[in-house]
Amino acid sequence: MINEELIRSALKAVKYPGFSRDIVSFGLVENISVRDGSVSVRISVTTSDGTVPLKIKTASEEVLRKIEGVGPVSVEVAVQQPKGAAGGNQAAKPKVMPGVKKIIAVASGKGGVGKSTVSVNLACALEQQLRNRPDFKGVGIFDCDIYGPSIPLMMGISSRPEIENERIVPPTNYGIKVMSMALLIDEDSPVVWRGPMINNAISQFAQHVSWDDLDVLVVDLPPGTGDAQLSLVQTLPVDGAVIVTTPQVAAVNVACRGARMFEKVNVPILGICENMSYLDNGDGRKVHIFGEGGGRRTSEVLKAPLLGQVPLDSEIREGGDRGIPITIAYPRSEPAQVFNRMADSLLESLSLT
User: Fold this and answer.
1) Which domains does the chain have, with CATH numbers?
2) Which of 125, 140, 185, 150 is nearest to 321 (CA)?
3) What are the pLDDT digits (tens) for 270-279?
4) Greatest C-alpha distance within the chain
5) Mean pLDDT of the 80-91 span
6) Kindly report the CA angle at 232 between 150 and 34, in degrees rounded to 5?
7) What is the pTM of this model?
8) What is the signed CA dihedral for 26, 29, 34, 39, rounded to 10 degrees?
């Protein structure tokens, strides 16, 4: 029997051009209609590459026509221009978070590079740089790492968000608003979700959280390229991405592959952060435990500036565990100064200086 479930299953064979993920798991299939053997499908993509919609449409039609018993097939591909796309229609940008001036995504190609630590300390450094300005609005962190949210722990937040006027009010610490899945689920509860549920969660957090007016929203993404990353750039007007890597070759290669996703959807790479760059042994000499030059190589490949090299420091780890970021606990330390310089560079590139 031809039904919506059968059609959706068949469309899983259609890969998003340039990705190994299919259009169903990416949450791009918006509507399926089956009637007397005829099939109509609506797919929504955000891209400035004119070849992508045609490739998806052609591949989808080919897959559907192979299903026994299927008659006429109609595939509609709705296209939205991503933020920053050349010649893009400004009116087509998502009208969410209208009070947020700039949105920075912090991403990595693999886990274990300290992306969430970078997100937290970068947000704190941005807040410190901006707070004394007469027009200062605020800074927020949006934890999009659905499966492994850790931002509340690192920010010293354990209280549940409140609800006011049917909107979620994010808790605040160190002057920064924080929203995370970790604040809505039990500590021991795993998040076992498929793509569409992730897409919906990100959309709900974007539209139903009282972010109010912010100068900068830092978005901590899960590692890799998948549902959350694509949903983010489809839902939010992201102004740019910071790619986090470590010095070794393996991390660099994966970081570059992960960054290509942002290039495909025309989100600018604002810069590279090399985390765990070196260990200061106390006499001024730097010990490069994980190798050397990874951030520079990533910067050269992606043609993006190397924003900073964050040293290995036990205070960074301890600060994360205690909920006191090193930029707050030890603002004059070398790691804190690196984050401050990164914040300066980002504010300048985003025209917030």
Assistant:
1) 4-80 (3.30.300.130), 100-349 (3.40.50.300)
2) 150
3) 999 999 999 9
4) 78
5) 46
6) 120
7) 0.71
8) -100
